[in-house]
Amino acid sequence: MANGDTPVIHSLQELADQFNKLIPHETLPAASGTTEPAPTSPVQMEDYAAKGYHLNVCVQPDQVVGAAEILDSHGFALDAVTGMDWIAANEMEVVYDYFHPMNSWRVVIRTRVPRGKPEVPTISKVYPGADWHERETHEFFGIVFLGHPNLTPLLLPEDADYHPLRKDFVA
Amino acid sequence: MSAPEIISTSDTPRETFVLNVGPQHPATHGVLRLKLTMEGEYVVRAEPICGYIHRMHEKMGENRTWAQFLPNTGRIDYLSAMTYNHAYVAAVERAAKIEVPLRAEYIRVITSELNRISSHLVWFGAFLLDLGGFTPLLYAFDDREQILDILEAVSGSRLTYCYYRFGGVCNDVDADFVRGCRNFVARMRPRLKMYKTLVTDNIILRKRLEGIGFINSEMCRKYGATGPVIRGAGVAYDVRKIEPYSIYRDFDFDIPTFPDGDCMARYLVRMEEMAQSLRIIEQAIGRFPDGPTLTHGVPRMLKPPAGDYCFAVEAARGRLLVRIVSDHREIPYRVRLRTPCFSNLSLFEEASAGMILPDALAELGSLDLVIPDIDR
User: Which of B35, B186, B294, B347 lies deepest, with the highest CB count within 10 Å?
Assistant: First the structure.
């Protein structure tokens, strides 16, 4: 299913190398806010049996579209987009899950944005399926997806002005 | 929206109108609403409007213990609750490194596959009901009843199961269960043959479903559609084979695919899948091991090590991914449910454009939607 003009990758290492080219090496991912140790490299191979995915990539907010394009060119499918509220670190995390319909590869792309100004570009132009996932993430976390065609509530009432999955939300 | 509004403006030469379907409509199977922009009988734009049965399961996951979230998992896709149980317990087992005894894995596979058949039977009946055939529903529910009796005896519920536990299942099965499964497999094979002769090979059904509602593999990939939708587009994607979990590796079964991508292809995938699930159940019953069904020493108040963990299973409607984030406390930091119906419905707007209304509703039925699974 991969596009004909892009070189076919044979291993996850080749994919990891492409991400290494995308991300400048001085950008190191932040600690997660839990007691888990911070990753030592933005592109990290993971133990599938322990984590449930193979490749974990931390990118800058403006690189999520570039990362989506790399995965799209290799025939990956969009699994989900979601958020995470790291209130102790005063940050929001956006998590993009991808799976490959032909191989067992699972890739996670993450990015961190400040809690006061949570903005990332939309990937719905690369993956139209991200449209709904981003609307859901927007209503639940208040994360703004710049360039999204229709950032209205999907599951919450149309007049909802609260973001229930924020950790400081009180019902 | 009450009355359809006419949106005919001077810059649109064609006259269109808005037709509201649902949220209370037999063709939308629950509380899904469709806002259709129509040009005569043709759908110009179909916008699904969701959220009528939104319950915020993900927030509920953040205010109760790991074990207390178990009953929620049976209430998301209520037609295949066992697979949802499986994804959640397996994610927590992965995080807390809990081993599952072999007998419990067998029980999980058998009950999940029984549940898959019962789920497909509901779809089979309801889909044909959408298309105007009433009788198959009665036959399908008769078969489904046999499965519900077997599962009720072991789990205590007929629909919203909460049977799996961290490290196994809560009750061991007895000889009646094994006998019941054997009888069911023996009963169901001729029934599937009968469905093929009476329904699948019926010229009326063929003419109704063939060549409408095309969804190709590229659209599935872009929207993340999985399950019978992607297999009906010719891609042999099944989590049980591609990311084998539990003990599915040990069984001999095929992934049915049909390349046409139309409503009939998705119909045929599900019918064939029931036969494949029967094969798995038969093999599992044939070499059902003895032993414990629950690992001892799993603490009641679980505190998985900090980090995030994913687990994907093949639910009846496609890929279900559970992502849990732990900060080493008794309460999850985050429970994320990536449900198959959400992604499968999201492509409907693109897939249904240009179809006539009855065909668009047939396509909606062929997606096999469970609305609480979309709304969560």
Answer: B347
Task: Count Cβ atoms below 10 Å from residue A14 Cβ, excluding itself.
Answer: 12
Q: What is the pLDDT of residue A5?
A: 46
Q: How far is B120 from chain A (nearest CA, A)?
A: 23
Alpha carbon of B160: minimum distance to chain A alpha carbons (Å)? 23
Q: Left, alpha or beta for A142 (phi > 0: left; psi -120 to 50: alpha)?
A: left
Q: What is the pLDDT of residue B9?
A: 52
Question: Looking at the DSSP assignment, which residues form a beta bridge with residue B372?
Answer: none
Q: Hey, are the CB atoms on A106 and B311 less than 8 Å from each other?
A: no
CB proximity B325 to A under 8 Å = yes
pTM confidence score: 0.88
Cβ of residue B243 closer than 8 Å to a chain A Cβ? yes
Place B10 in a pLDDT band, splitting at 50, 70 and 90. Answer: low
How far apart are the C-alpha atoms of B41 and A108, rounded to whole Å?
43
* Encoded tokens for A21: 């080219």
| Long-range CB contact pairs, A149-154, < 8 A, 24+ | A149/A124, A153/B51, A154/B50, A154/B51
What average pLDDT score do residues A30-35 get?
50
C-alpha span between A103 and B152 (Å, rounded) = 37
Strands B17-21 and B164-165: unpaired
**Domain A12-114: CATH architecture, name and number where available:** 2-Layer Sandwich (3.30)
- Asked if the Cβ–Cβ distance from A165 to B58 is below 8 Å, we say yes
CB contact under 8 A, A80 and B224: yes
How many other C-beta atoms lie within 10 A of the C-beta of residue B189? 14
- Least CB-CB distance to B321: which of A49, A80, A132? A80
Q: Nearest CA to CA, how far is A37 from chain B (Å)? A: 9
pLDDT at A25: 55
User: Sign of dihedral through CA atoms A7, A10, A12, A16?
Assistant: negative
Option in B221, B325, B326 nearest A1 (CB): B221
CB contact under 8 A, A78 and B223: yes
Interface of B with A in 56-115 (CB under 8 A): 56, 58-59, 62, 91, 94
Structure tokens at B59: 């927030």
- For helices B102-130 and B263-286, the axis angle rounded to 10 degrees is 150
Residue whose tokens read 């002005």: A161
ipTM over 0.90: no
- One of 1.10.645.10, 3.30.420.40, 2.60.40.10, 3.30.70.580 is the CATH number of B17-375, namely 1.10.645.10
Structure tokens at A16: 């990891």
Q: How far is A35 from chain B (nearest CA, A)?
A: 6
Q: Test B321 with A129 for CB contact under 8 angstroms.
A: no
